[in-house]
Design a protein that fits this description.
1 helix; four-stranded antiparallel beta sheet; about 50% strand; mainly beta; about 170 residues; five-stranded mixed beta sheet
Length: about 170
């Protein structure tokens, strides 16, 4: 009798483990993508980079993102995040953005205004992001970066070589 009971318990335990091993399919969460506008400007100009967060298969409810920009090329003038969102710029080329909307949204649009400091090519990049839908699911997300081309000031020479210089005797 004891042997039969042990065998029955063993079969039941194996059956429980087998069922647990199959698992149950999880609800598939949507995805989100952060994209930026590209900019061409001149040294000393103020310009705006538009940032857009788009969801696919979900409704956006929250976003936390850390953006980086090079302080030798760009100076942050302002940042616009839809209410009830906020941003903080602790310095060193960092922008921390937070946004929450319980009723959700299909798209989140923000704008970043900068002043260009020197000529060259640079970008605003996403260091990290976490985006959630109205059910609290964290969405798989990807991010692009902006492409910012800063040209020389108006009237400045495009030839920065020294070949045009002449030596003149002193007086």
């Amino acid at each position: 009798m004891k042997k039969t009971l042990k065998s029955l318990l063993l079969v039941m335990a194996m059956l429980c483990l087998a069922v647990a091993g199959f698992g149950f399919p999880a609800k598939a969460a949507g995805s989100a993508r952060i994209s930026f506008s590209d900019v061409n400007c001149k040294v000393g100009e103020t310009f705006t980079v538009n940032m857009s967060v788009n969801a696919s298969g979900a409704t956006l409810a929250a976003m936390d993102a850390v953006l980086l920009y090079p302080t030798d090329y760009l100076e942050l003038v302002s940042c616009s995040v839809p209410s009830p969102g906020s941003y903080n710029s602790p310095g060193a080329g960092t922008i921390i953005m937070n946004w929450y909307n319980a009723s959700g949204s299909g798209t989140l649009n923000c704008s970043l205004t900068f002043k260009s400091l020197k000529a060259g090519s640079t970008a605003v990049t996403v260091e990290s992001q976490e985006i959630a839908d109205t059910d609290g699911n964290v969405l798989s997300s990807s991010a692009a970066s902006s492409a910012i081309a800063i040209g020389a000031e108006s009237g400045a020479s495009d030839d920065a070589s020294l070949s045009a210089l002449q030596i003149s005797p002193g007086s």
